[in-house]
């Protein structure tokens, strides 16, 4: 369980995230949605422990997050970053094996570690470029290798910053299905996501942010409403029920 | 056996061979395979080997190892394969210390110790300055560290330039020779002072390898993988200041080793720092032993500054590799 109590973060006088109160239950898939610059990534980095909050406290599995050692924390939560740049000729398999770093104490990876890494690559359909140099991969291929690295880290909490970026529909759905499987295993996924329909399809809970403040929080049905979306994004929306039951969201050109 | 393990074994095998060959060649020729016999039976040539050649060969190996592993470490910290051990100010600082000593105090003051101690002290001092400038609330931003290094490097460069301007002819000569680097003054004293510093430095640096791997994905990624990035930077800069300070004070400014050797290792066996760091240490030792051999034999009885030789061999060799592996190299 992850508890956020009055979380705020600022740079100078500028609040990037303000007064967030959320309790995230084990085994749920949370989506953080909102416009560019709403504070989605900042909130994820706060939950990961990378940024110290200016106000409030974050408790991870009952213990304040700043009381964890970096290595201990790395075994509990993993973070998938949006941007990546690597200047050294590592192959994909090595990048995935970095996920074992918190378990290794500087020693060499064992055969067991190698098996975990290969299985993770297979799960994201990236095993065919295990031996390719990572910097030569396309954006989508590199994304999948990164997700394999997070899986290899085997945490209880997955923090994903727009994992579906750069991916084609097949792999978007595949990654989100994977997130579902992870949650069924009573682990927790919190993901920032731009695609409101994918969020609606997959997330158990949504947190809608605007200017660092929580606009709405709850099930997709209660969050993805016409008024809240138009208010947050500043454009008119149409919300329809999808045949499968979840709300189907479209920006509309000519509001009636 | 893995390819990397093989490369490491080959390098470790080549090091003593290159050292024996280097110890044998010179004005007085000794065949390498006769060295054990000469040492054991104290045959003719014993004095040359023990008092002249050995300290020089050992010192050049140690200095090469220190420069190369420092280069590899800083490239990892700055996540840039073009980083050089001089970036955090230690080389220029040590150079400034040495020139100040030669011009203002006199090269021979305090016997053999004055110059190297001044160089080492000043090198470490400038690096501490760079670190302090970059430090903010107990955290050091890598980019600020780089910029502070560039700023203090330029100050130290100005100081060296000023001292060169003020120096008389004789001072200028010893100054130039020192700045270009060389092992002409290698004695057992220097070896014995350098060795413990090298041991500490190499130990500290080689322990950072796994964390440097995670660091290559970026500082926040490294943190998310459980690396204490501040501790990593602190130990790395400490180790580099120690080893490069010792290297420069023992042998002057020798360029290119710290840049070329880690690159070679990456081209041969990939980027894993647990292989690149030890491999660079051994490879740097071999390179500098060979370069020193070349520098003292090619224009014998005179001696070329070894810094010229490393640049002369290093440059074209590096270019050749670059062309050969063009598609796989990331700059």
Can you walk me through this structure?
The complex is a heterodimer of chains A (256) and B (331). Chain A is an alpha/beta fold and 256 residues long. Chain A has a domain at 1-61 and 157-170 and 187-256: P-loop containing nucleotide triphosphate hydrolases (Rossmann fold), CATH 3.40.50.300. Chain A is 34% helix and 27% strand. Chain A has 10 helices and 12 strands. In chain A, helix 5 (111-123) crosses helix 6. Chain A starts with a strand and ends in a 5-residue tail after the last strand. The relative contact order of chain A is 0.17. The mean pLDDT of chain A is 92. With 331 residues, chain B is an all-alpha fold. Chain B has one domain (3-328): ABC transporter involved in vitamin B12 uptake, BtuC. Chain B has helices at residues 3-24, 35-41, 46-77, 90-106, 114-134, 142-166, 169-180, 188-206, 209-215, 219-224, 229-251, 257-269, 273-297, 306-324; strands spanning 135-136, 139-140. Chain B has a two-stranded antiparallel sheet. In chain B, helix 3 runs parallel beside helix 8, helix 3 packs across helix 12 and helix 13 crosses helix 14 (306-324). Chain B starts with a helix and ends in a 7-residue tail after the last helix. The model of chain B has no long low-confidence stretch (mean pLDDT 87).
Defining key terms:
heterodimer; A: 256 residues; alpha/beta; Rossmann fold; four-stranded antiparallel β-sheet; 34% helix; B: 331 residues; mainly alpha; ABC transporter involved in vitamin B12 uptake, BtuC; two-stranded antiparallel sheet; 75% helix; globular
